[in-house]
């Protein structure tokens, strides 16, 4: 049976992880490769590295990090942050990434999704959608959540699937950072309407939140950052717990 | 040990290169018939579309080269599919090493997503390729097409929509549908076993 995936997300700035000081005993504090390896050894199913630097130099550093991850880590990983055009995708895939996550650029230039799918196949595209449940329903946001779009979550999610996205990484801005659980109703609607895998993001605070994202939200995978980085939830215990809750996980 | 990787127009070959390097092997990536023939081990990995891949392989006369290999050969993902007789993907005639048909997953319920993406478990493991691997260990998959279970050639079974061949074996030819190079320590052991065949 296909396992539900647990994906730690690492924010990388100028080649160093931004969070993650409390996690295990690392030789070099803040080295994304070492942190990623520690997660991989602890049972993470995939890794996600987001480049939060904007500068050209920062992007070059990030590409080097991606190469090192590819050389040293033996589980799949997604990279994202600042991808604007197909050349960025090519650079990151050539460095050894398995998948790329695109966000704002897909909303501004939807044909980018078609283009990536044609060149590299749908399996490399994770379309990240940041959305908020406003008074008039779920809307997409760009620019790190600062810019509201008239585009509705369900319409956009359907469109990216039709254009060839392989997976959707859905972050509920209402839930992100609040640690009260994932946006399970919206997740379930996405899972019921779409045929591609949905990755839940935003809201993890306790182990039961992951269970609910899978049982109530029908998510295929769940992504989190701070609960893992600050050692609040350890992945081996989380997976043991999920297995006891009858959720298929890789142990 | 000389390990060669078949160079053709398929993606994601570098992750196999990295995986071998982690095992202390410096593989060569080549489409040269002589280099492939004299290597101790040959890997035939990749991700891609069957008809394009076969067209390239035929154009470069690699079809005969691969079929004539006598050392242990490991096909991975599309590599496994191309080693079969025929694929539904692009209605493609393949290498015919395994007399088997490659089919597309057809979902039975909404939850059956295609491609299968993620970790699934394998069972009924046989041959030294799986030495030291426990039944029901998890391995990483990304695929829309599969080879049905066959009692003579299937050496590992996986359940997704239906039981299918997670791995095949015939003579010196081995193949996995999953990606050992992305399957953590289990995958690493499988690659090590292949090198030790």
Give the terminus-to-terminus CA distance of chain B. Answer: 12 Å
Radius of gyration of chain B: 15 Å
- Sheet-strand content of chain A, in percent, reads 15-25%
**Structural class estimated from helices and strands of chain A:** alpha/beta
Number of helical runs of chain A? Answer: 10
N-to-C CA distance of chain A: 13 Å
Number of strands of chain B: 13
Main CATH class of chain B: Alpha Beta
Number of domains of chain A: 1
Written overview of the protein:
With about 250 residues, chain A is an alpha/beta fold. Chain A has a single domain (about 5-245), classed as Alpha-Beta Barrel (TIM Barrel). Chain A is about 40% helix and about 25% strand. Chain A has helices at about 30-40, 55-70, 85-95, 105-110, 110-120, 155-165, 185-195, 205-215, 225-230, 235-245, and strands at about 5-15, 15, 45-50, 75-80, 100, 125-135, 135-140, 145-150, 165-170, 200, 220-225. An 8-stranded parallel beta barrel of chain A has the order 1-3-4-5-6-9-10-11, surrounded by 7 helices. In chain A, helix 1 runs parallel beside helix 2. The model of chain B has no long low-confidence stretch (mean pLDDT about 95). Chain B is built from 6 helices and 13 strands. Chain B has about 200 residues and is of the alpha/beta class. In chain B, a hairpin with a 2-residue loop joins strand 12 (about 160-170) and strand 13. Chain B has one domain: Class I glutamine amidotransferase (GATase) domain (Rossmann fold, 3-Layer(aba) Sandwich). Chain B is globular, with a radius of gyration of 15 Å. The chains are: A alpha/beta (about 250), B alpha/beta (about 200).
């Amino acid at each position: 049976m296909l396992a539900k995936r647990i994906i730690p997300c690492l924010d990388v700035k100028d080649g160093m992880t931004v969070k993650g000081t409390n996690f295990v005993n690392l030789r070099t504090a803040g080295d994304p490769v070492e942190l990623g390896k520690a997660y991989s050894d602890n049972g993470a199913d995939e890794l996600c590295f987001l480049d939060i630097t904007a500068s050209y130099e920062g992007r070059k550093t990030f590409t080097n990090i991606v190469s090192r991850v590819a050389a040293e880590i033996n589980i799949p990983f997604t990279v994202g942050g600042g991808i604007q055009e197909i050349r960025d995708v090519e650079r990151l895939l050539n460095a050894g990434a398995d998948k790329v996550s695109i966000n704002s650029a897909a909303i501004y230039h939807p044909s980018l999704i078609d283009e990536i799918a044609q060149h590299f196949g749908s399996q490399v595209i994770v379309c990240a959608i940041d959305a908020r449940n406003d008074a008039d329903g779920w809307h997409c946001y760009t620019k790190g959540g600062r810019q509201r779009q008239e585009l509705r979550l369900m319409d956009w999610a359907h469109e990216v699937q039709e254009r060839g996205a392989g997976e959707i990484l859905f972050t509920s801005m209402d839930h992100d950072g609040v640690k009260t659980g994932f946006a399970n109703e919206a997740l379930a609607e996405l899972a019921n309407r779409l045929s591609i895998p949905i990755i839940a993001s935003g809201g993890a605070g306790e182990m039961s939140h992951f269970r609910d994202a899978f049982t109530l939200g029908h998510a295929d995978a769940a992504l989190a950052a701070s609960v893992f980085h600050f050692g609040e939830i350890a992945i081996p215990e989380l997976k043991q717990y999920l297995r006891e809750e009858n959720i298929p996980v890789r142990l | 040990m000389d390990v060669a990787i078949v160079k053709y127009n398929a993606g994601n070959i570098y992750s196999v290169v990295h995986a071998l390097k982690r095992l202390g092997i410096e593989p060569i990536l080549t489409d040269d018939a002589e280099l492939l023939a004299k290597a101790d081990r040959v890997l035939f990995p990749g991700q891609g579309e069957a008809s394009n891949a076969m067209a390239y392989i035929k154009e470069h006369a690699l079809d005969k080269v691969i079929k004539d290999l006598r050392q242990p050969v490991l096909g991975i993902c599309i590599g496994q599919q191309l080693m079969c007789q025929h694929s539904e993907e692009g209605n493609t005639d393949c290498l015919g090493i395994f007399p088997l048909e490659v089919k597309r997953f057809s979902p039975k319920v909404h939850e059956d997503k295609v491609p299968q993406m993620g970790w699934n478990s394998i069972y009924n493991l046989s041959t030294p390729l799986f030495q030291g691997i426990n039944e029901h260990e998890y391995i990483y998959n990304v695929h829309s097409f599969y080879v049905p279970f066959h009692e003579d050639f299937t050496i590992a079974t996986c359940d997704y929509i239906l039981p299918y061949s997670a791995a095949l074996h015939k003579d010196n030819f081995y193949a996995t549908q999953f990606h050992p190079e992305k399957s953590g320590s289990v995958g690493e052991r499988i690659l090590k076993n292949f090198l030790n065949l």
